[in-house]
Amino acid sequence: MGGQVGDTGFIENKTTGEKIRIINTVKENNLTVHLAEKFPSEPSGEFIMAVDRERRQSIMNNHTATHLLHQALRETLGTHVEQKGSFVGPDYFRFDFSHFQKVTTEELHEVETRVNELIREDLGLDEKRGVPIDEARAMGAMALFGEKYGDKVRVVRFGEGSVELCGGTHTRATGTIGLFKITSEGAVAAGVRRIEAVTGKAAMDYIYGVESLLYGVRELFNNVPDLTGAIQKTLAENADARKQLEAVAAEKAAALAEKLYADAETVNGKRIVRFDRSADPQLVRNVALLLQKKAENFVFAGAFAFDGKPNLVLMYSSDLVAKGMNAGKDIREAAKFIQGGGGGQPGLATAGGRSIDGLAQALVKMVEIASA
């Protein structure tokens, strides 16, 4: 109940000693149904039923943590916060709640700090069963929106701030939770946010993982004291280097475009460039764009290999596009020769494929279509 997963464990026949693993428990028609690994060979007689205690304790810790999280969220974000659902497992839990905007990093830290304060207070479980629903509401007990409750309910309290109607299992005191750590926060629906978190050993494992990652990054920077500053400096240097490389690439593309423009041949009244040397596809595309801006009545047809893969680039100048020519359509015909496909705009299109052997035929096809 209360969003938590069912218990696991085993049943053991006291007479035969046969032990059968219970893989889950579910509620059906107010009955607890045990899902067993197999049916007992001798179902009669007395059985011992044992719950996986360690797993059960982890579930109870996580379930109690959802109550403390609910309290901390309402204290930090406001009393408009209401629980909208939850999942409670042995390894982690998630908690959905109403809120109209992203929870900031500072707010998450405040919530996390508050929950851990409540854990360290070692608040004892105060559980009352069979409480009339009106009396429970008068006690300030929070109810899950949309949940149906009977005339009498179970009220679970930890300290003065956490009072809820709940049918789940809880730890005897908050101190057994040990540690609480939020692992993620995000939106799941309009006006509904979700927090995922871990407790106890799982929380420690999570922190150790983050520490290990941090230590690894610090080693990459020779254990510099100011790691943040070192990363920022490296990012700035990389940005400068990228700009320099982009400038060099632009100069290279401009020089190649000038040469190809001068080497263009005239076929059926159109100026056509055939390009078949190995080159970076982005460089070739940039060259085609430069030629498109520079020339009229111009066609660039490229069929070339790069990193072992065939590539096609087809460009028509704007005046040819105005006359109805369409590179996106025409390149698909040529792409058949390289066992591929492609497309793009009427003025510029690209294609890729699987067969390098068909590049020469693809180039011929593009020139044939363009010069028709």
Characterize the structure shown.
This protein has about 375 residues and is of the alpha+beta class. It is built from 9 helices and 17 strands. It has helices at about 55-75, 105-120, 135-140, 200-220, 225-265, 280-295, 320, 325-335, 360-370, and strands spanning about 10-15, 20-30, 30-35, 45-50, 85-90, 95-100, 125-130, 150-160, 160-165, 180-190, 190-200, 265, 270-275, 300-305, 310-315, 340-345, 350. A 6-stranded mixed sheet has the order 12-13-14-15-17-16, sandwiched between helices. A 4-stranded antiparallel sheet has the order 3-2-1-4, with no helix packed on it. Strands 5-6-11-10 form a 4-stranded antiparallel sheet. A hairpin with a 2-residue loop joins strand 10 and strand 11. Helix 1 (about 55-75) packs across helix 2, helix 5 (about 225-265) packs across helix 6 and helix 8 (about 325-335) runs antiparallel to helix 9. It starts with 8 loop residues before the first strand and ends with a helix. The relative contact order is 0.08.
Provide a brief overview of the structure.
This protein has 372 residues and is of the alpha+beta class. 39% of the residues lie in helices and 30% in strands. The chain contains nine helices and 17 strands.
